[in-house]
Amino acid sequence: MSILDQNIEKARNYMQPLVEAGVLNHIDGQTVPAHSGALMDTISPVDGTKLADVAKSDAADIDAAVAAAKAAFRGWSQTPGAERRNILIKVAEAIEARAEEIAFTECMDTGQALRFMSKAAIRGAANFRFFADQAPGAEDGEVSRTPTQMNTTSRRPVGPVGVITPWNTPFMLSTWKIAPALAAGCTVVHKPAEFSPMTAKLLVEIAESAGLPPGVLNVVNGLGETAGKRLTEHPDIKAIAFVGESRTGSMIMKQGAETLKRVHFELGGKNPVIIFDDADIDRAVDAAVFMIYSLNGERCTSSSRLLVQSSIYDEVCARVADAAKRIKVGHPLDPDTVVGPLIHPVHEEKVLSYFVKAKDQGATIAAGGEKVGDQGNFVAPTLFTNATNDMSIAQEEIFGPVLTAISFDTEDDALAMANDTQYGLAAYLWTNDLNRAIRMTDQLQAGMMWVNSENIRHLPSPFGGVKASGIGRDGGDWSFDFYMETVNVSFPRAEHRIPKLGG
Ligand code: NAD
Fold first, then answer.
1. How far is the CA of 164 from the centre of ligand 1 (A)?
2. Which label site among 2, 232, 242, 315 has the fewest CB atoms less than 10 Å from its CB?
3. Distance of alpha carbon 70 from alpha carbon 27, whole angstroms
4. For 108-159, how does the pLDDT look when each residue is reduced to its tens digit (9 = 90+)?
5. How many whole angstroms from 168 Cα to the centroid of ligand 1?
6. Do the domain assignments include residue 457?
7. Rounded CA gap, 287 and 293, in Å?
8. Closest Cα to atom 28, ligand 1: which residue?
């Protein structure tokens, strides 16, 4: 038996309970079907076959989950931070113990390659550990004194919150939101993406088996426009943490306006990797290739625009094209696979449409630009060259293993092009000129910039975008600021004069 066949067999065994029972909702510690009994399919990106039934929930299911989260809020928010910490550390340990099951299930549900997904569960556990450690001090504030008053600030959890996540790396992204919310003392209703719902059910089961009380984390599956919409409109949900497309973020803002919902958005990107001719070209090429072709390019921080100084443009493009052509496209559970199938035929159609647009707009397809095989959603790692920044392949988020290369002459050109997009999530800069790096990073419109580096996540640092890429920051204390309200209580330090009116 080949390693791939062994892995497929293992995945089948791991997924068996979810396949048999269906990916149902999880409300108040119970596995429950949708109120209406409706189901939808989650399908395999490898061959389009059905993986499992999924509860297709509507407003009634969200209402039930919110009621559970509301009822659990008092107990969980008043659980001492140190105790919440201990429970969340146990959740991290339980995730680690089931890391392979999570990774294999996620590969089958999303099409992401095992070589990257094998770390996703471990990163999810790391998120729980990191935020758990901050739970004991989360409510701490400051004391500031004037001659007459002593002001004390503290934070308290905002209430039950909604978490809405996308399909690209669902487990890791969910933990990124859910772990700080729980550490802060909030209770959660999670609405996972309809294309990849399986590991969200694993997470809630793992968390409860590790000691998380029922009702503290609830999962409701369903479509965005029904279940998701109701969550964003529910008056008892005090905040929505959303990761997904920019236009969905804008819909959520409208939907939440009536109840003055607090929102945190992590949205799309069209992130430039800018390579100057004084850079370490070997490292820059490796990083650019990694940041667009890992995770199927279905990654918000992917380096999807390659801006290269004209003197080295041909050389860099030739090297990237060569690497793209040698990347193995295959089954997500094959340990050699780098690029697996895209999540869904609908998304594949979107990605393929840009191959046509690229040709129509006059760009050159230097690598890929075609579907691979006739089954599943496989597309070849693609490089467009001779592109200009006004083309849709340079402006729109394709969210696949597709890179658009554009040349520039001067620093000003590079900066203007990098900033000429609606997005502003991440930027990658390659230069050995320190002064240039400072000038560029001072003016690049991006929430996160990496200089001479690929995307290395550091949990205490802020993560998030500017412009249409997001509102708010994750990581460090920024996460707690979102899930908590800051309140101030003022005490007199001396008897001060109170104006007497009407006397
Ligand atoms: P999407 O916006 O289509 O869906 C995301 C989630 O929103 C899903 O759960 C969906 O059901 C729900 N939803 C859809 N309409 C809704 C509505 N009206 N009300 C409430 N919920 C609704 O995004 P996607 O296609 O699943 O994911 C890909 C996108 O996510 C890309 O744009 C990518 O850049 C972005 N993303 C951003 C980050 C980041 O950190 N900035 C990380 C990962 C992905």
1. 8
2. 2
3. 12
4. 999 999 999 999 899 999 999 999 999 999 999 999 999 999 999 999 999 9
5. 9
6. no
7. 10
8. 244
